[in-house]
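Recap quiz, item 2
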Amino acid sequence: MGQTVSARDQKLAIFLSKDQEPTKKPTSIWNRTVLRVSEATVWVIVIVLLISIKVSSPYIFDDSSTLWFAGLIISFALAYYTVIYHHFGDKQRRYIKDIADVIFIGILGILAKDYSIYFFSLYILPIAAAALALNIVNSLLVAIFASIFITGNIILNTELFASIEPVYFGAFQIAFLFLLTFFTRALALQLREEKSQRTFFETKLRQVDKKLEDVEAIEQEFVSITTHQLNTPLSIIRGYASMLLSGDAGKLNQKQKRYIDEIHTGSLRLAELIRELLSVTHIETQIHNQDNQPIDLTALVQSSVDEFKGKAIMRSININCRLPNKKITVLGNQVQLEQVLNNLLENAVKYSENNTNIFVQLSPRKGIRSEIELTIVDEGIGIPVKDQERIFQRFYRAANSKVKDASGTGLGLYIVKLIVERHNGSISFVSGEHEGTKFTIRLPVQSSKEKV
Amino acid sequence: MKILIVDDEESILDMYTEKLVAEKFTVITAPDGIAGLKKAEEEGPDVILLDIIMPQVNGLDILKQLKGNDKTKKIPVYLLTNIPEGSSTGKAKELGADGYLLKAETEPMQLSEFLKELKGKMEHKTS
């Protein structure tokens, strides 16, 4: 899997390097400064106000100060609300927000009643500012609704400025409102910028994904055509050599027979190599895992073992198979898992001495019920210690394997590992020279409860 | 049993033809898809072996036309190609191909054995 991921990352990197990040607008520094300054100022004013009320007024909870707090809290709530809201912006939430805005303004109007209603009506400003920076239609709707509501309140309440010292409060409020307006607008602008960047990357990611799919298709197509080109002359060589060997062109002398046999054997090896290279490329280039079919591993192991029994019996090798009595379902690609079993069994048979045993066992992993363990043990020539680290590498063949049997591409175990990892599993082995080898594969199983 | 082989590669046509004739099959060949279609219609073979990659008309298009023609749609078509099993062969099966043989893995003798087996099955079916 490591190989595949890095290949994919490389492609991604190449693709991304062609595009630049979105250029940041020059306003962003300005925005950020305004944001920080106005934020700080707002808080300073709030603190100063709180202190001054505490110090100057013995009646903390008189009507006017309550109103003041209500106004402050609601304004802040609105400002933050707008900001938080638009940060996650989607349509439904925006409608809810519009309604909520109107309700807030309404509550504000009711609270203000006959007191400093004019000033409170100015709280529309921050909302309008924030909304303008984000969505004009929504902001207008909110502003209109709020205005109607508050104007109605003003008309209903004739006793204006009934509270004491409305001029001071008014002055404070106006200053405060302007700052709040700046604050919300700056916040909103910054958010819009972030949002556009996010959208940019999201679009980019989607494009990359699409491109990778295309690359995958092109690669598969390329491999397909290349294999065709390689296979065509090969099938001619192999076919004619086989015909010569079977005496279709008359009887051959010993030497001719030996030469043709070499050609034929060579072509068989070439065919195997092409087949394995093809499956490696296929698995490696397959970025999207399309095959997630439930597969009965018990049946699969049984059929693979049956297939190899004939080959084994010819060399008096006994394959002992221990399988669970029930279905064991794994998710994956049937052909690929078959290949895993075939490659491992083929190796086991190939590197076993005559009159020996091979043990195949499928069982739930001890302690971990969500994993199944498949072990294939042979009593063959084993893997020399110095080769053990490298047997899963591409084209690597242990030194003694070459002595034992000339054929083999050095891709078998690499493919096995690739496929097992593609299925979120792992493979390990223990081996001693002339003592045999034990391969262990662990795969996540599909429990009977979560059937597909 | 009459076999029609459609392939643009002359050496391959010769190779398989020689073996199949020696094994007492009647073999007709076509060097391209159009000729293949024509021969399939005129000669009514029992089996068609069809290559996929051919100049002018692709084997898949030929397959489509064979399966769309009342005269030829009942003839079993096997893909005899060097295109590895994959999207093309999958598509061929969707279009109604009966099977797939990779040329590089099918020596003339093996093809002949395959056809003998097929012949047995077909006779068994009709009887």
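The first strand of chain A starts at residue 293 and ends at 296.
Chain A touches chain B at residues 220, 223-225, 227-228, 231-232, 234-236, 238-240, 242-243, 246, 248, 271, 274-275, 278, 282 (CB under 8 Å).
End of item.
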